[in-house]
Every structure is written in C-alpha cells, then in structure tokens.
Amino acid sequence: MDSPVVTLTRNGAIAVVTIDRPPVNALSADVRRGLLDAFDELADDPGVAGVVLACAGRTFVAGAEISEFGTPAFSEADPNDVHAAIENLNIPVVCALHGTTLGGGMELALACHYRIATPTAKLGLPEVTLGLLPGGGGTQRLPRLIGAADALEMMLSGAPMSAQTALEKDLIDVIVEGNLLEAAQRFVGELVATRAPLRLASEVDVDRASVSPTLFAETRTSLAKKARGAIAPARIVDCVVAAVTRPFAEGLKYERDLFVECMNSRQSAALRHAFFAEREAGKLPGNLAGNAKDMDLRPIRKVGIVGAGTMGGGIAMNFLNAGIPVVLLEVKQDALERGLGLIRKNYEATASKGRMTLEQVAQRMALCSGSLEYAELQDCDLVIEAVFENMDIKKAVMTRLGEVCKPGAIIATNTSTLDVDVLAAASGRAADVVGMHFFSPANVMRLLEVVRGRDTAPEVLATVMGLARTIKKVAVVSGVCFGFIGNRMLEPYLRECESLLLEGATPTQIDHAVEAFGMAMGPCRMIDMAGVDVAAKVVLERRKEGALPADPSYRTACQMLFELGRHGQKTAAGYYRYEGRTPVHDPEVDRVMEGLAAQYGIARRSDISDEEIVERCLYPLMNEGAKILEEGIAYRAGDIDIVWLNGYGFPALKGGPMHAANVIGLEQIVACLDHYADKRGNAFGYWTVAGLLGDLAAAERAFGDA
Ligand code: 3HC
Ligand code: NAI
Fold first, then answer.
1. Which of these is catalytic: 65, 68, 87, 127?
2. Ligand nearest to the CA of 110
3. Is 218 known to be catalytic?
4. Higher pLDDT residue, 225 or 254?
5. What is the per-residue pLDDT for 2?
6. Which of 216, 245, 489, 704 has the most CB atoms within 10 Å of its CB?
7. CA of 94 to the centre of ligand 1 (A)
8. Which residues contact 658 (CB under 8 A, 6 or more apart)?
9. Which one is the CATH code of 6-263: 3.40.50.360, 3.30.413.10, 3.90.226.10, 3.30.230.30?
10. Could you report the per-residue pLDDT of 265-280, keeping only the tens digit for each?
11. Domain 486-698: which topology?
12. What is the pTM of this model?
C-alpha cells in the first residue's frame, strides 16, 4: 500500500496500522482511503494474526475532517466501508487510544474488536456541537455497546468521557500505563494466543433494559425545552430509536441519510463556522503572526490584580484555577477582605455542589494573597487593573503601575469604556500596556476581548493571547474604540430597542421577538439583569464627552427608568417589575414610555411587528460590525461572531451576527437599512449603510470572503 497518511508495518505476526495526519489525525478522505487499502491488504495476508490500529502524534483520531463536509471529498471512501473492512477481518483488530478519540475517531474505535487506552484518554461523540449526528455508525454501535440511555446521554451532551468511565461502561477493555503501542501489541498477541472471539458491535442487540418505555418521549420533551429548534439532537433520538427497532444495516443507512440532512442544514454550517472562527480568533494575522513565532513571549508566572471588586475577584479565579499565583491589591483592608472572602465563598459553593474538593479549595486559596502595598506587585509578570470605571482613578493607578512593575511586566486594564491609549500613556510605558476586557462573571464567561493599543508591543499581544488559552478563555483582539467590538455593537441594538418602546412596542413584545430569533435573552431583560443604572451611567458619561448622537431622544428610556429608581432586577423594577426573578409586564413602564413619546413628539402605533423588531434591532448591529471591520478594529468577521456568540448570547445555531447577515443576504440587509432610512428619516445617520457592507452587497460577496 502507498498512503502518505496511513502506514502498515508488521512485527512478526502482528500488523500495526498507523494514522499520521497532524495536528489531530482527522479522518479525511485520504485517511479513509489509506485505511481501506491497509485493511484490504491485511485481508489477503495469511501471515498476519492480529492488528493494532493506532495514531501518531498527540491524539487518536479527533473526528472526521470538518472542512470536508459539504465538499466532494465527503463522499469519497465511505467511513462505513472502512468500518466494515475492520469488523469483517477474521483476525482481531485492537485500537490503541490516546488523547481525544472523538466523533469519526470514536466510530472507528467502535468498529474495532477490542479497545485499549491510556489513563488520560478521553472518548466522545461531540457531533451535536457541530449541528451533526455521528454519521459513521456511532448512533447504531454505541447503543448496542452501552445501552440506549447512556448512548443518548453521550451523544446529546457531546461531552467526552474519561478512560476510567469508559472502562466501567465496557466501552474499552483495558487501561494501560506506559508505552501504549507495545501494550496494544502484547494485548492483541494474547487475544491471538487465547483464540479470543472477535467482538462485532454490529452483531449485538441493544440491551432492552436500557430502554425504558418512556425514554424516547421524555428525551424529546426535554429537548424541546433545552435545545429549542435544534435539528441534530432530534435526529440523534430518531437514530437511536432505529438502533433499537431495526436491523443494523438498515439503521446504518437511516443514520447516513439523517447525517447528510444535518450536514446540509444552515444550523450545522453556522456551528462549523463558529468552530473554525474560534480557532482563527486566537491567531494574530499577517506580520504579527509571523513575529509571534519568532518573538520571545513573556513568561507569566505571577499575576497582580488591582481592585478586588466584582471583576477583580472573578479575574483572579481564572489564574488560580490555572495554578498561577495571584496577589490582589486594594485601597482599604475591609475591601481586600471582602474580595478575598468572596473568592473563597465562590470556591466553597462549587465544592458544596461536589464539583471540586475542599482540598482543591485550599490549594487555590493558598495561591492567592492580598495587599495594600504596591511594592507587592514588583515581582508580578502581569498586573491587571480592575478599579472603578473612572478615568482619573484609573490614570493614577496606571501611573503607579508604570513605576512599580518590573521591566518587561505586562500592564493590563479591564476598562470597558475608557480609552486604552490614554491609560497606556499614563503608565509611561505604553508598549507594555494592553486591554484585557473580561466579561461578568469573569470566572464563568468564556469571552475575553484583548485590546490592542496604538503602541502595544506585538509580543505583549501575543503573550496575552497565549495566556488566554491557558486560562481557558476564547480571546478576540479588538482595536481601541468606544465599547470595543461587543459593546460598540450593542449600542445601536439598544438604541433601536428603546426607540421601539417609545413608538409603542412593549418590553415583553421586544424580548419575545428577539428571543424567537434565538437570542438567549431580549434586550430589556438583559439591561434589567446588568443594571439599568450601569447602562444609564454609560449613556450619561458618553453624553458628557459629546460622543452620542445629537438626537434628544437617544436612549432616553433607559435614563428615565434610572431616574425613577428602576435599576432593574436588583430593585425589583426596571423595564419590568419582578416577582422574585420573574419579569412581569408593568403598565407603569407603558405610561413612562407614553410620556416620553409625547415629550419628544413621537407617534405611538400598534402595528409594530416582530419582523420589524428583529430587523430594527439586529440589522444596525450587523451594520456596526461592518464599520468595525472596515476601520480595522476587528481583524476578521469571524472574530466579531465569536464575541457575540460568547459574550452576548447570540444564537449559536445562527453562527454570530456577521455569519447570520451572510445567510440573510447582504443585499437584503442593505435594502432593509435603506427602507428604514426612508420610512423613519435618517437625520442622525442611524441607517447609513457602512461602506464595506454596501460594497460587499453590490459585489454579491459576503463577510469573511477572502
Ligand atoms: N477536523 C478538522 N480540523 C480539526 C478537527 C477536525 N475534526 N479537530 C481539530 N481540528 C484542527 C483545528 O481547527 C486546529 O487547527 P489550526 O491549528 O489550524 O487552528 C487544530 O486541529 C488543533 O485544534 P485545537 O486548536 O482545537 O486544539 P485543542 O488541543 O485545543 O483541541 C480537540 C483538540 C479536542 C480535538 C478539538 O480540536 C476538537 O474538539 N475538535 C473537534 C472534534 C469534533 O468535533 N469531532 C467531531 C467531528 S464531526 C464527525 O466526526 C462526524 C462523524 O461522525 C462522521
Ligand atoms: P467594583 O466597584 O465591584 O470594584 C472595584 C474595586 O476597585 C473596589 O473593590 C474598590 O475598592 C477598588 N478600588 C478602587 N480604587 C482603587 C485603587 N485606586 N486601588 C486599588 N483598588 C481600588 O467594580 P467592578 O464591577 O469590579 O468593575 C471594575 C472594572 O471592571 C471597571 O473598569 C469596569 O468597567 C470593568 N468591567 C466591569 C464589568 C461588570 O460587569 N461589572 C464588566 C467588564 C468590565
């Protein structure tokens, strides 16, 4: 055989088939072809008594090659033919698992007669996270091996299981310490010597005891709530029903048909887009990327955090979780103790839910110290300031940090609204300064906007992007502008939401329309949760700077609610009134909006449709994204999608606002913006189409096209 990615070697009577396709041995057409060739050759080789299937590099196969879906390569060398060739070999085939055996890799493993793994191996069928179902026999073999209930749970959650759990469920046969390949060859040698039976998952019947009479109905009911509108989970259930009720070959064909349906769906295209966009976002483009490889990244062994409030504490936990020591700096002892106490309380709450041990709590707290003295920050490699959002206070802190931090230390600001370049200048060493905009709660939210200042040194940016991976954040680089990527796009979204309220829509109607589109939470509920006071203060500050449109009614709803003391959930009244945490329509808010409409001469109407709400709230947001791209604030359209998917509850099934705009059609978005400019007037430029958006639409191109 002659394959660049699959090799066949012989060690006496034992053959070893090795897949070597970095970085993760994805099951591409050439790997499948190589496997078919190898197993064809083995079928005709009487000198071989047993086979080991293994992978070179960091992992066993981590899935089908995602970039081949929807391309001709997908239809080449059917994985089910590969699996049949393995199963039907009349000598034992053992697969040796290390790293992450996922998706198509797991299906390959399920087709082998025996499975052996390292203690750290993980096994899973994460297809659902890409809007897919296991399409290479996974939905048919897994229920036969571990029962329908467990198989459903594994495929619907997409979460991988540890080797230990897999052993307990008889999904693997042995866990081995030491050299995996040698152990696998010894294991297959024993199977040969003892004439152990060949175990074919396809020939097993699903254990009836694992199929309670209500299993499928209950699963479907729970999906209707949890996976609103998602196609793949429902189809996974259909396939498991087939595994229970139909012969294997029929089930396999049924699974393939449903897989193709999922693969061709917009939902899967969106989720696959997000998968690659997330990985792309971590990379610095062009010159910076070239430099990143050669440049000396700065080691981050100790982190200082100034301000132990809501954000400071949450940020600290990220580093403690990664085993990096943290020193928290505060102005007053009581604030320091409160901050440290909150971190401990958070960890203890996690421990009480059984998600960490008390010993781990102690270990993390032992890495965390507090101080009132700047001198304590001298040996920190990175210091993040998270003090009050006030330019004078922050400038003073940055100046102090510029003085005390050791040469080469990185100084970061967590500001959400202030100019990073001004703060950088205050430090006196702007090349060392970068924005690290965490989202609240900072220990939970995955998103991190890394703000590249005018003078930020490339190695500082690259170091922080690498560090983000260490602390398990998805990081996106933003240039300096008000609100960076996420909050800047939020502004037109909230502006239209508030205009609609004045024109006669209710908070409930707006939230329902936007949530039906898929947003995790409508804008009114969102502000109530974040705090009407917080939102109103940002508007007030921006007004002072003259940075807001001259429109007198701009975001007036939010400011009025603030003045009325309706600060949102925390005062049990905002855009809604609250019964516990449940928002309830409040006629008082209608009266407030009627009053404001009268004050600003805005006509109220009762014909506002859900369609108008979605178009008016979301299309200007997409238009702002286009401006962000053309100004070079974001490197790529996909980066913007990642911000909105991870920080703002944009529906994953729609792939982010820029991807969603592509799907709607850029021409359609432009036509719609023009329509509202016409209908509502455009005195403040709200509906002016961004140059990039107009150009792409005219050229029938899309965001993200090269
Ligand atoms: N196909 C194509 N490329 C893949 C891939 C896949 N299945 N899995 C990972 N990659 C690529 C990534 O894009 C990245 O490329 P880059 O370096 O050019 O950016 C590189 O491999 C490394 O990936 P990560 O940066 O994610 O590395 P990590 O070490 O953090 O994670 C991983 C590794 C756990 C394997 C993670 O990449 C992952 O979860 N991959 C996807 C697994 C998956 O969903 N598999 C199912 C695919 S669908 C399927 O199998 C259908 C089948 O049933 C028919
Ligand atoms: P907070 O009010 O909870 O905490 C601020 C802390 O800083 C207080 O404990 C205060 O004692 C301390 N502090 C003030 N001046 C100090 C000084 N000179 N030296 C040392 N400590 C000082 O505020 P929060 O919410 O944690 O915000 C902090 C920063 O994070 C702000 O810049 C804010 O814009 C930003 N941010 C906040 C988000 C949020 O949702 N709360 C989200 C993202 C960013």
1. 127
2. 1
3. no
4. 254
5. 82
6. 489
7. 24
8. 622, 625, 637, 638, 640, 641, 703, 704
9. 3.90.226.10
10. 999 999 999 999 999 9
11. N-(1-d-carboxylethyl)-l-norvaline Dehydrogenase; domain 2 (1.10.1040)
12. 0.95
